[in-house]
Amino acid sequence: MSADAADLVAPTIEGPTAAVRACLADAKLSVADVDYVNAHGTGTVANDIAEIRIIKSVFGHEAKNLSISSTKSMHGHALGASGALELIAVIEAIRCGIVPPTVNIEELDPECDLDVTLHHARDRLIRAAVSNAFAFGGTNAIVAVKKFAG
Questions:
Q1: pTM of the model
Q2: What is the span of the domain harbouring residue 120?
Q3: SS3 string of the chain?
Q4: What's the confidence (pLDDT) of residue 74?
């Protein structure tokens, strides 16, 4: 987690970037280990562009190898419950080997030149995933989940 309470609703890059990096370090995952990011994805221009910049900053050249989607596009923004719903989606994505889609989107911003799964789920082996949750006031909570090899 990180907190960067610069503004009640305007996202920053630094706080979430630090939270994602700390999460990966705590989970002992490299950026190359992660196959899927469940984006916070509120559907606002400011937040979505900020999140793409965060992903690019953290994952560097590995960002091109990620599958990205936002399950919030299907279950809605449930405020405090969103993180739990998204974690369930991430666990099931890993278990089933399916990247859930981002629905209800007509056009990606040109700055979003990463592999965003749109409209339909798709098969993919997911060894590890990250789920981003960015809240009002700059509270950033990130969780990483890894496939159990047992």
A1: 0.93
A2: 2-146
A3: CEECCCCCCCCCCHHHHHHHHHHHHHCCCCHHHCCEEECCCCCCHHHHHHHHHHHHHHHHHHHHHCEEECCHHHHCCCHHHHHHHHHHHHHHHHHHCEECCECCCCCCCCCCCCCECECCCEECCCCEEEEEEEEHHHEEEEEEEECCCC
A4: 79
